[in-house]
TrEMBL record:
Pfam families: HTH_6, SIS. PANTHER family: GLUCOKINASE, HTH-TYPE TRANSCRIPTIONAL REGULATOR HEXR-RELATED. Keywords: DNA-binding, Transcription, Transcription regulation. Gene3D superfamilies: Glucose-6-phosphate isomerase like protein, domain 1 (3.40.50.10490), Winged helix-like DNA-binding domain superfamily/Winged helix DNA-binding domain (1.10.10.10). This is DNA-binding MurR/RpiR family transcriptional regulator. It comes from Arthrobacter pigmenti. Residues 131-271 form the SIS domain.
Length: 297
């Protein structure tokens, strides 16, 4: 994607989605850019190459991997970064052993707020619109996720079921494979993995696509195997730092995309409001019956 420079907003977040697929030398260049975008914009290509202990050709390759025609275009984009985002202060401030609970809360609040903002900046409107359209018209939807991503898969499945869509979450490899092989061209399969390398998600999504289903990836790694196997990729932001596991880093961003998909699909589904009312009433009445039985005891 070099014919048209990408939007300046989300540049640092985009670097983090690509970092795992870059060469060591390219990663050093990208790391310097992410650490201080505005400061890097002041460097010539030779100065940046020297700081990264690499060649000017590597700097050019890195710029192209980020979606720019060359370093001059990247440098202009870096200079246009909002001054308030020149350093990832809250993301860089890891939780320390000596932090009290309130300090931990403040750091996590800032961390997750930045992750949400970065995920929003990474979003491709065209891809979002396409995926929403696919989900709205799907005969059946499979969602694959392992561990913490499995919880996100279950959340998406529960939400879509509430508005009458046939959606199943599979949080175990074998169950995912069995379901994937039965999908067809009218179906959609979604794989959720922060790293994009989890076999229990990657393999069912690959099998689903081979079965004819449309494959969608929800991942924080744009160059990952999961993203490469999918026809449409929804990117999320989030890094693991110290006490923060990858699950903590990605969960908030994944849930933001899940909520977006749910609301947008509900907007396009004529029966969604009626379905929500029916499911709400069913749960409410069941709760009332349980309370009555409890009072009778």
């Amino acid at each position: 994607m070099t014919s048209e420079a990408p939007a300046t907003a989300g540049l640092v977040a985009r670097i983090h989605t690509l970092i795992g697929s870059l060469s060591p030398a390219e990663a050093r260049v990208a790391g310097l850019i992410a650490e201080n975008p505005a400061g890097t914009s002041q460097h010539t290509i030779e100065e940046l190459a020297q700081q990264a202990s690499t060649s000017t050709a590597t700097v050019v390759r890195t710029a192209k991997r980020l979606g720019y025609q060359g370093y001059p275009q990247l440098r202009l984009a870096l200079a246009a970064q909002p001054t308030g985002q020149t350093r990832e202060s809250s993301l860089a401030a890891d939780v320390r052993d000596e932090d009290n609970p309130y300090t931990v809360l403040q750091k996590l609040t800032a961390f997750e707020r930045d992750a949400i903002r970065a995920t929003s900046e990474l979003a491709d409107p065209a891809v979002l619109d396409t995926v929403v359209g696919l989900l709205t018209g799907a005969r059946r939807i499979d969602v694959y996720g392992i561990g913490a991503s499995g919880l996100v898969a279950m959340d998406l499945s529960q939400k879509l079921q509430r508005i009458g869509l046939y959606c199943m979450a599979h949080t175990e490899h074998d169950a995912g494979m069995v379901s994937a092989v039965l999908l067809g061209s009218d179906d959609v399969a979604i794989g959720i993995s922060h790293t994009g390398t989890t076999p229990g998600t990657l393999l069912p999504l690959r099998r689903a696509r081979n079965s004819g289903a449309t494959a969608v990836a929800l991942t924080g790694a744009s160059g990952s195997a999961l993203a490469q196997d999918a026809e449409h990729t929804l990117l999320t932001a989030g890094r693991e730092l110290g006490f923060r596991s990858a699950a903590m880093a990605s969960r908030t961003s994944q849930l933001l995309i899940v909520d977006c998909l749910f609301v947008a699909v509900a907007q396009r589904t004529a029966s969604a409001r009626d379905a929500l009312m029916k499911t709400h009433d069913a749960i409410s009445s069941a709760g009332d019956r349980r309370q009555m039985r409890k009072e009778d005891q």
